[in-house]
């Protein structure tokens, strides 16, 4: 990949968090994206000017019902339907470009592969209901501005942009039953995105970053608006050799309750903290692969929601 002063800085950069950043949305049905900020591993921000195409695959199997901080059994707390599991397989496609002026932009689109299973209470019995779909999600367009700080070993910047309602909101199953709104590949809303970040190179082999980002729906669509979401990322990277880099992050996500007549406010909204170790490997000067294994340190949810015991993200980034 393009060489950036300091080996560790090559292993850290930031961009798609501006567009796909960690939206670990723990809805009652369990739809989710991994909250790890992979762009510090993929060099997507471009502390130097240029373009980066980043392809990221992630797997999150949410099969653990939870209330508050306590794990519970399926159906332990009576509901209209008992959530059992949601398997999320997401492909995130992001293109980011930075300019020498400090300005840059990112365009990103998720492709969602989701399988959901719950038990519906009907006439005193339990009816199994399933959804299995592959759909395009909501497009994100973000800009950023960054400048060196102090002696030039640090960079600070701001993020701004929108999430557009390109994903479908009425996906149904083979029986014609429309999935819950929080399970759908799109929210139907236009969301504002704003944030800030800081990166500092500590030595030739180590650096760290911090980022905060807020996403807020600007409208409702068919009686639904997702809750506002705040993500906080803190990470460190260190070169382990000529081609390898070790990566470690703490990722915090605070999500408010969904709103609207079609929402489930009593079973939405959460507070989560994750530990995300990872590795990156340089395939050449312009290409890198990376992987993260994310573990929850603490999860607290409103009502009853599905959570995952782990998340896995792997990616390939190439600079133009």
UniProtKB/TrEMBL annotation:
UniProt keyword annotations, A-Z: Signal
Record InterPro entries: FApF
UniProt signal peptide: 1-27
Protein name as annotated: Transporter
Organism: Ramlibacter alkalitolerans
Record-linked Pfam families: Phenol_MetA_deg
């Amino acid at each position: 990949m393009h060489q950036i002063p300091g080996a560790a800085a090559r292993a850290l950069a930031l961009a798609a968090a501006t567009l796909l950043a960690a939206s670990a949305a723990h809805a009652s049905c369990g739809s989710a994206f991994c909250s790890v900020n992979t762009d510090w591993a993929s060099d997507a921000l471009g502390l130097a000017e240029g373009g980066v195409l980043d392809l990221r695959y992630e797997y999150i199997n949410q099969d653990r019902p939870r209330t508050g901080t306590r794990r519970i059994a399926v159906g332990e707390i009576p509901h209209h339907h008992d959530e059992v599991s949601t398997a999320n397989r997401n492909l995130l496609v992001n293109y980011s470009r930075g300019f020498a002026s400090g300005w840059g932009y990112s365009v990103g689109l998720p492709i969602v592969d989701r399988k959901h299973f719950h038990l519906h209470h009907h006439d005193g019995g339990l009816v199994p209901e399933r959804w299995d779909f592959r759909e395009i999600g909501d497009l994100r367009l973000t800009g950023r501005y960054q400048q060196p700080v102090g002696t030039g070993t640090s960079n600070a910047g701001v993020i701004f942009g929108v999430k557009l309602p390109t994903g479908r909101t009425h996906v149904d199953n083979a029986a014609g039953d429309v999935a819950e709104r929080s399970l759908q590949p799109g929210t139907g809303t236009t969301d504002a995105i704003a944030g800030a970040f800081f990166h500092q190179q500590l030595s030739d082999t180590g650096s760290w970053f911090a980022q905060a980002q807020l996403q807020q729906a600007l409208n409702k669509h068919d009686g639904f608006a997702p809750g506002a979401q705040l993500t906080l990322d803190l990470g460190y990277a260190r070169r382990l050799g000529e081609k390898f880099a070790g990566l470690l992050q703490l990722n915090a996500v605070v999500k408010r309750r969904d709103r609207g007549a079609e929402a489930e406010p009593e079973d939405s909204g959460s507070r989560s903290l994750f530990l995300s170790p990872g590795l990156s490997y340089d395939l050449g000067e312009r290409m890198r692969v990376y992987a993260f294994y994310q573990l929850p340190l603490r999860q607290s949810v409103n009502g009853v929601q599905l959570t995952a015991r782990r998340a896995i993200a792997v990616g390939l980034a190439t600079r133009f």
